[in-house]
## 1
Amino acid sequence: MNNFEFYNPTQIVFGKGQIEKLKDLIPTDKKILMIFGGGSIKNNGVYDQVKKSLMDHTLFEFGGIESNPKYETAIKAIELARAEKIDYLLAVGGGSVIDATKFISAAINFDGDAWDIPSKNATFENPLPFGTVLTLPATGSEMNCFSVMSKGSDKLGFGNPSLFPKFSILDPQVTYTLSEKQLGNGLVDAFVHTTEQYLTKDVNTPLQDRIAEGILQTLVEEADKVIHIKEDYESRANFMWSATMALNGLIGSGVVHDWATHMIGHELTALHGIDHGRSLAVVLPSLLRELKEQKKVKLLQFAQRVWGIEGGTPDERIEKAIVCMEDFFNKVGVPTKLKVYKITEDDLPTIVSALRSHIPANLGEAQNIDQDMVLRILKRAL
């Protein structure tokens, strides 16, 4: 096991009817800016629950955060927050809203071009405290200190220990109105977050491996009910907590990380508008096939422990496991081929070039995924 430091100060408030506890989680003397997305919270009852709980607080609102949060929109929220002397932020939404809120928190007291924070890893001071009300399980942003923001064709991630939410309310009931597409994307996102920390190099971390495998198995086992039974509380609760656990730092402690699938996927989102979860489903199977020798130990473990695959040669078992994963992605309505998005071989060099401009170094746990290998991975995904 590698050396590590684990720190996660986020208070989780989980379960039915927990939104009413907002009034106790934010001091009444704080001026709050509630940040949300396209307005779905006004149709599913979450908005009314938040407003009711915070009726004795001073509350301002900013809506319109995109599914891939844009810098230009976040800047408008920052301007409002500065004008009203906001001193507490509340993200009500999924990972995109929470990511935007982290950026707003970091940038509000930043002197200079706020895009320098994700693009140049600029230092910032005095971020605003914030909490979250999660409405879409997927990214784990509700319990980590990372964010991804977009500006034009750039989609960049950043993180800082000061950007953990103070609290996050997780009520599985708020997921009842989500579409099958949103749920499928969330399931895949959580699954791939887990594999990015699990299907890497074996450094003797049996506890982290078992927790990761438990998350993967739970997502697979609960997926059918999550997608097809609208108000099954238990399956939604298990899904929601699995997505949070997938990226709160626990399974990533002491292990080797990959994240190449995410980096490549970000370019597919930025250049072709593919939903984040869908971009991951396209890249991961092809990446695993390209790197099956490098990842052989963990892939064989994945085959046996997650999918129950025992017979056949090592290569056959690995291929069966990847096929099982592809079948799972497709079963929850998330395609695994670029052709679905009308991306052809002619488009691939532009994707590779954009990735290289954003990340000059090689990708992967062995830092050996160069431009040529990225191109081969994308060709496999056609």
Note: Residues 155 and 266 are 6 Å apart (CA to CA).
## 2
Amino acid sequence: MSLTQPSRRDFERLDQAAVDDICAQHERMCASRPGGVRANFAWKDLSDTDLRGRNLTDADLTGAVMKGCFLQGARLEHAILYGCDLHGAHLSGALLKRADLRSANLSLANLAGADLFEADLRPGAPLSGDGSRSQRLYDPKAREAGTQVAVFAGANLQGSRLSGVVSVAADFSNALMREAKLVRANFQRATMVGADLTDADLSYVDFEGADLSDSVLFGAKTHAWKIRDANLAGALQDPVHADPEADAAYKAMMASHSHWCETGGRRGKPADLNHANLNALGSLSEQNLTAVTAKGAVFSGLDMQGAKLQGANLEGADLRGCNLQQADLRGTRLAGARLSGSDLRHALMGPLYLSGGRVIPCDLSGANLRHADLSFADLRYARLLGAELSRADFTGADLTRAELAGVSRQGARGLPV
């Protein structure tokens, strides 16, 4: 993504006071208060101005020069940033849902933890300005500039459109990129460590020299992608060759475990699923896996809605993108587990009460819950020490006496102050 700017004289330079006044009027409009006017920064020069935390939802920033702007935590949902020059801009934690970022120059920009859900970052078409000029905002000759060394670490890019973009050496580590469209994009030497690319369209993408280690690629379209010298160590992919015997063995093991649970240990036997890859099973919905041992197991992407996992040992397990709605995780050991992007709405993650007055809390110490949805979950007494909670949603969750020391909470919603 690159921008060919008009000559400098075509831009009206706005100082901080003027920018603040326009933002104030726009915020009055957003709040339906008198005197509100939609912000129009099209073809204006706002370089280095401070817009931190500002509400610019639906604002028009077409072709604006915003080099080095401070936009941390700004609200830019549905904003028009077509051809905007955001070189070196500070956008960490910004809200850019469904924003139009076609042809925007994001070189050296920091979008760590930003929410770009369904944003459009594709190269754009020529754009007419005020009628007296016509500027081509995407210059194919300058495409190598692209989003070089831009930072999207931990950003939400689910459903975003990135087809044809140039993101050479950009940082997408731990980004949520489910169902994103990256067709024919250039991601050479990009850092994609831990990125969730489930069901993304990666057709014809150039990942030469990219680091895709520990990424999630389940369901991704990889037709004609280029992965020469790419690092795919630990990446989770659809199995090239199914192993029906292994899957049948795991199913039988879990059926026996369920029987063991339901008969109080008189029949069946407990399952040992340590380091097992269970992704091919598709669904464990309502499965009774009480007290199961599955340390380091791979559940990523599974439907586990309503599963009974109370007292289970899931330390270090990979549960990225799992549907765990209403799952019973009382007293479960999830220390170091990977739960980024998982759906834990209404999940039971409170204490497990045992005979003799023993109480076992749900242990999520050091777990990664980035972008997870824990709204209305029961997290009473839960141990979340040092957990990664950035962009997680705790709306309506019961966090009574939960331990939250040392957590990363950038952009998380519903957490106590």
Note: Helices lie at 16-30, 244-262.
## 3
Amino acid sequence: MAAQRKLGKGLGSLLANRHGSDEGGGPLWLGVEELSPSDQQPRKDLERGLESLAESLRRHGMMQPILVTQDPEGGYRILAGERRWRAAQIAGMKRVPVLVREGVQDAGERLELALIENVQREDLDPIERALACKRLLEEHGYTQELVAERLGFQRSTVANLVRLLDLPEGIQADVSRGTLTAGHARALLQVQDPTLQDEARRRITEDRLSVRQAEELCRQMAKKGAAPPRHRAKPRKPAWVADLQEKLARHLGVRAELNLKVRNGGKLVLHFQDLEELDRLVQTLGLESREAEELLEG
């Protein structure tokens, strides 16, 4: 039973019972063909940014080993680092560094380890986290308390994540894209009528409501069955700003936010998921960052 396992929390549990080379604790170097992809991968979109990651690997090599376990059918099964393995093949690498974790045969444990690695690196969006938690609950017999313990969450966090899956697919997609936060999405759960729920979603995004404002809007709509009048709605971004923001995101390969002030100026925010993506972004901008390279090597 999953409830009887004691894996511990955090990346320490990923690295426990693992070994590298026989010569001194470094990683093993295995041929890419010796590895097989995870059968418990919590990420839905493994392809996004692979070319950029491959370019970073060509430039710096792979600084962080892939975590694997021996596959009873031969070779090694990836526990964490599948995107790095895929990018390595694109980059033409023949061998990759790995750390081998002993005795991981249970599917629930493999999913748990993959979740820990991705959650702590913040690689998963809320919907991906919710889907993975649901799999642990429904497929592997975990309780919400056990999921929370393994991932270092509060039990209420797990419950709130899983509740997001009660929303329509369109709203879930907004959360995955970052158009809505998980807090906004939870506010929409108050509205049961699909038409009103969609109207609330539109109002939240167009008026750029805070989570607190969204909760009040949805509370009123759920209670009265109609949308309250708008007050002090924030202006939508001009079409040319939204278009430029999308072009920046496509060109740079990261999520971009372009916000203009009422009078003059504004700010451009670029989001990156990890140091490798930051390094690739720095390269795209034509800059050099020795500090980023040192962090990657560490």
Note: The CA atoms of residues 59 and 91 lie 10 Å apart.
